[in-house]
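Quick one from the shared queue. A colleague (R.T.) flagged IPT/TIG domain-containing protein as missing a structural entry in our internal table.

Convert sequence to structure tokens.
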Amino acid sequence: MVTLNPNQGPTSGGNQVVITGTNFTGATSVKFGTKSASFVVDSATQITAVAPSNNASVQVTVTTPGGTTSPVWYYYILFPSKSSLSQTAGPLAGIPVTLTGSNLTTATSMSFGANTAVPTVVNDTTLNVTVPAVATPQTVGVSVTTVGGTTNGLTFTYVGAPTVTGMDPVSGPDYGGTASTITGTNLSDVVDVSYGPDSTAYNIIDDSTIVAYSPGGTGTVPVTVTSVGGSDSSRSFTYTVTPG
């Protein structure tokens, strides 16, 4: 019985395939379908062949002075393609994302810049993966590797969590409208500012400054600044009761 390892490879060919069987001494040809492959006879029970290019499943045979082996199947895997990531930005700690594309069934790894992750294959068009963590904000290329090859073309942006170091003023009338200057770091990516449970209007001045406008409210409430990188609720705002 003849076996192939691996029994699949890219349509471009060029990968080594170890053929195991018997009586290989003096082999004169190895064919992948109608195409001849270069090969080396390692022993009477093993041949190492280089798969030629192709784009369909083919049968592999070995011919020796004693005859030709029974054919065994070899599968050519189409080059993968990517169309989108479910999220293209997230925290430094990483997040679960879904990659959609085609020819993804044989995916073995995904790379986010210099870091790799092992995806879960849902089907031929979908992969689930957890984006690996990094130490600093950055935008990296995303690639996926399958038996058919490696494809690039998407990016993922790591966003640092916002930190708030100051807020002024920290109190205002209960009817709202107080403009408070919030200072800190990583503020240019902020997507929400809330006073207690209520989101409010704000202007991003630069990466270290936001001006937020208090909504109406009562008592003392936490002020939460949120981006895709995380959130900071270290400051609070106190509503003063308006007479009358």
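The mean pLDDT is 96.
The radius of gyration is 30 Å.
Added to the table.
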